Amino acid sequence: MTEDSHSSSSLRRQPKQQRGKERVEKILDAAAAVFDQVGYEAATTHLIAAKAGTAIGSLYQFFPDKAAIFQAMELRHVERVKQMWAQANTPKIVQLPLRQMIHALVNSVAQIFEQPVSRVVFVQFFMAREIFQSIDESMTQEAINFTANILKQRNSKLSEAQCSLLAEVCVHSSNAVMLSALRNPDQQHRQRLTQAIEDLLVSYLEPHIGDNLLGNVMKVMKCLHCQSQRLSKNGYRRGKQCYLCKDCGKQFV
């Protein structure tokens, strides 16, 4: 079963036209807002339809009840996470210096949670596990396996057991801090907590996959975007040296 067919399994009718697909996405975003505001138990399809600005009959064309809507939200979140895993598990990311690699991974996760559906699904997984139909602990194990695979690529001398243990600590600790961040209404504090995840992972993993242990991590400065070595210094930002790539024209710290 493909991801597209899997994600449509909770739909009563699969939208064929772009207008229908956009309506479904609007309903899912509205449902996320309603579940976030009043909770799953108090939420109703009428509240969701009103939030989406659509008639209740239009909602029922695609979803028979709120359980089906939430399941569609689950599947949408899974698609986004697996797409992120596929994009992150590449030599371009894995072979970066440790701090830059962790920053890229944490930033990718944070971008997923900027989307209301994924944010609500993640929070509800830890608050109301009983309402889930598609996501279970196996997804957490997939995240651990994904992380362990990256650790093994960074340092082939680590055993499978070591990689698995390190990955388990990284995933569970990151989830705990991310949950606290997503539940906090203060945007600045959420950003500080997200930064703390990065600092935590770098400190924890440094002895095991630090740059000084690796022969495959780049030893010369390269552009983060195109890997070119043709760089020029371009001033400072917050006390750190900035560089300008002469090939792609992009800047980075």
Could you describe the 3D structure shown?
It is globular and about 60 Å long. Helix content is 63%, strand content 6%. A hairpin with a 5-residue loop joins strand 2 (240-245) and strand 3 (251-252). The protein folds into 2 domains: 3-213, Tetracycline Repressor, domain 2 (Orthogonal Bundle); 220-253. The chain has helices spanning 3-7, 18-38, 45-52, 56-62, 66-88, 91-94, 98-112, 116-127, 137-154, 160-183, 187-209; strands spanning 231-237, 240-245, 251-252. It starts with a helix and ends with a strand. Helix 5 (66-88) packs antiparallel against helix 7 and helix 10 runs antiparallel to helix 11 (187-209). Residues 1-8 have low confidence and may be disordered. It has a 3-stranded antiparallel sheet with strand order 1-2-3, with no helix packed on it. The chain is mainly alpha-helical.
Concise structural overview:
This protein is mainly alpha-helical and 253 residues long.
CATH class of the largest domain, named: Mainly Alpha
Percent range of helical residues: 55-70%
The count of DSSP E runs of length 2 or more, i.e. the number of strands, is 3
- Side by side, the strands of the main sheet go 1-2-3
Largest sheet: 3 strands, antiparallel
Name the beta content range. 5-15%
Whole-number total of structural domains: 2
Low-confidence stretches: 1-8
List the secondary-structure elements in sequence, H or E.
HHHHHHHHHHHEEE
CATH superfamily descriptor of the largest domain: Tetracycline Repressor, domain 2
CATH fold-level label of the largest domain: Tetracycline Repressor, domain 2
Number of helices: 11
